[in-house]
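We were asked to recover a plausible sequence for a given structure. The inputs and outputs are reproduced exactly as logged, with field labels preserved.

PROBLEM: sequence recovery
POSITIONS: 189
GIVEN STRUCTURE:
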């Protein structure tokens, strides 16, 4: 487990998760991971990665506890493979994540949008307009932008590869600097 500015994560798990039992495998494995784009909050269910978020770990923890399960804890057997893939990606050794993704924290519309992200190849970008057209909603640019901005599984679901337009970078959950770093990792100009 990691601790950081938000405090001792293990203590947070014990206090906020009434069913926390340190030696049982939790429903949701929870931890943080520090990388070149900042701290990422990781949560993994039996179905896959449900969070790889730039948000504060307390915010993510509360959302997971409210929407998925209160039995949350450290579980290296589920978290460590995600960390290894993130490290390999950040070092330029991995282009496609193989870790399963669980989009249950996304709205149904956002899931539709986010399911398009893996089709955007490593090292390339697309626009909100192209994504809107691919999902059959060519006028839903703002909704597409909002869905991408609310991506609960950043980096792994590569929403950073979507730009506002050919000449405008657009926002990113981790901030513009993180998006630019991800572009450099992938060789995107």
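RECOVERED SEQUENCE:
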């Amino acid at each position: 487990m990691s601790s950081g500015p938000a405090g001792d994560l293990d203590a947070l798990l014990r206090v906020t998760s009434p069913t926390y039992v340190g030696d049982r495998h939790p429903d949701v494995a929870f931890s943080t991971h520090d990388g070149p784009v900042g701290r990422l909050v990781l949560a993994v269910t039996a179905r896959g990665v449900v969070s790889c978020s730039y948000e504060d770990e307390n915010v993510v923890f509360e959302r997971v506890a409210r929407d998925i399960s209160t039995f949350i804890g450290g579980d290296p057997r589920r978290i460590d493979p995600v960390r290894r893939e993130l490290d390999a990606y950040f070092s330029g050794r991995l282009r496609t994540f193989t870790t399963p993704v669980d989009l249950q924290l996304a709205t149904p519309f956002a899931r539709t949008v986010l399911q398009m992200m893996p089709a955007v190849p490593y090292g390339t970008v697309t626009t909100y307009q192209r994504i809107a057209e691919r999902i059959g909603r060519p006028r839903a640019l703002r909704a597409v932008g909002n869905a991408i901005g609310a991506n609960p599984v950043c980096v792994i679901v590569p929403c950073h590869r979507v730009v506002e337009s050919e000449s405008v970078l657009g926002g990113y959950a981790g901030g513009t600097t993180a998006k630019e770093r991800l572009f450099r990792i992938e060789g995107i100009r």
